[in-house]
Amino acid sequence: MPAVDLLAGLREIVGDTHVVTDPDSVAPYAQDWTRRWHGKPLAVVRPATVAQVSAVVRACAAAGVPLVPQGGNTGLVGAGVPQDGEVVLSMARLDSVGPLDPLGRTLMAGAGATLAQAQRAARSAGLDVGLDFSARDTATVGGIAATNAGGERVMRHGVARFRIRGLEAVLADGSVVRRMSGVSKDNTGYDLVQLLIGSEGTLGVITAVQLDLIRPHKIVGTALVAVRSVDDALTVLHAVQHDFTGIEAAEFFHHDGLQLVLEHERLARPFDRPHPLYLLFDLADDDGRPDAFEELTELLAGLDCVRDVCLVATAADRRRLWELRELQTEAVSAEGIPVKLDVALPLNQLSLFERRLAEVVREVARHAVPILFGHIAEGNVHVNLLNAVEEDADGAVTEAVLDLVASLGGSISAEHGIGLANRRWLPLTRSSADMSAMRAIKQALDPEGILSPGRMLPEPSRPAHKDPSRPNHSEPSRPANSEPHRPAPAKTGRKTQNEAGHQVQKSASSRSRSSR
Ligand code: 2HG
Ligand code: ZN
User: Looking at the keywords, is Nucleotidyltransferase present (predicted)?
Assistant: First the structure.
């Protein structure tokens, strides 16, 4: 079918104003926040209902034109960015929030509702979503589901898949699956909800999500602890977790990342003198200990490896400390376009990883400046390498880092996903049996390759290690100790981050900035 016929058909489905083709209006949908991924879509289509999504998918399938669902466009791996000629399926208008069921502790949300909107609805009922991260004002629940996002609360409440009870999605043939009974025990057949979570738009278009809410504990304080090394940070975390049940969120960043934040965001430095590494965590009032704050102060003061501590209780002071961590992404981006990797290591390999990373990177990109930060409880390191994009033109830098991660038994994508950025390296930690099973699932649910083709899995006709976008790549070897593992939920769950949203941000500074 000629493109003009498809566009006319799409206009009939969603209305003229919601089929966007003029270049200026399309631009924000066509490039990602990192400025690394971009394409020239045929059009941006903005449906308002699940019936319209279904009709759009059917029309695109009939015309043989692939489409890519997009939420807040806050993803970092190119999963929600169009490739040339694709239709962007913006989920922005499916932004309803509610109803909330306080008894069953669930909240319905359209795919285009932002995380912050869902948080506000849950909090107004004394509950919470149990997910949080800096892009909360832009990232959408549909994108969060599609990418199985993580974030800052994972250590307590789990990644997105632990916080989602049900969902609604449109499959590649336009049919609609809806599993939103709210029943928490349901072993009726294959778990399509969990299959679609984390499928990055390749198996279905998520149109609504039923969030599994948590009963929040009151946060009594936030601590910023200065230490010498990652090992020291883990020692502190271990000691604190031994004495306190309610540790929520444990983040880390280095001196150089803090410097960038202080420079670019004009914030006050937290300590008089610099320290190599900082551990940031929240203490919740789980045990109802009236003196928890004082007891924590005493515990930290007694630990040899602690060089300095800033312990605060008010909302404003807590936000000030959290900004030092949450603004790292923006500060890095203000400095330049980084090679951005998101990896996780077994905790006992974290320190070795950081040491070896410096050597490995120096060999392939002599002037690279690594800025490392992340979610230390999960061993999740956000590796941002400044001054290395040129050297990574054929993937050499990425490959060196991911080879190291795989050799240490880690995960090459902890919470950001695979998208276009990481697909070439999937075989590093996924066996050929894994790859075949994943391909079979894709083939069964999307035989024509209409939904987000080329994301996550390399094109079906080509072996994974011969990705045409990386012609010089040689086949990576699979380390003996890299069997994929299932992350165990923490006491009650965990947190996540990623894609989607109802509005595409145009500048680095609009990505996060929200109240905590
Ligand atoms: C975070 O934890 C996000 O702040 C972004 O996952 C990480 O910018 C990054 O590399
Ligand atoms: Zn993160």
Answer: no
Q: Answer yes or no: is pLDDT of 380 > 90.
A: yes
C-alpha 249/C-alpha 251 separation (Å) is 6
pTM flag (> 0.85): yes
Q: Assess whether the C-beta atom of 74 lies below 6 angstroms from ligand 1.
A: no
Q: Please, where in the chain does CATH 3.30.70.2190 lie? A: 219-328+496-511
* Six token digits for residue 204: 């279905």
Instruction: From the options 3.30.70.2740, 2.60.40.1510, 3.40.630.30, 3.30.1330.10, give the CATH code of 336-452.
Output: 3.30.70.2740
Q: Write out the two tokens for 242.
A: 């031994």
The topology under which CATH files domain 97-212 is: 3.30.465
For ligand 1, atom 8: residue with the closest CA = 329
C-alpha 64 to ligand 2 mean position (Å):
36
Q: What is the pLDDT of residue 506?
A: 28
Q: CA–CA distance from 38 to each of 102, 142, 250 (Å)?
A: 42, 21, 33
CATH of domain 3-90: 3.30.43.10
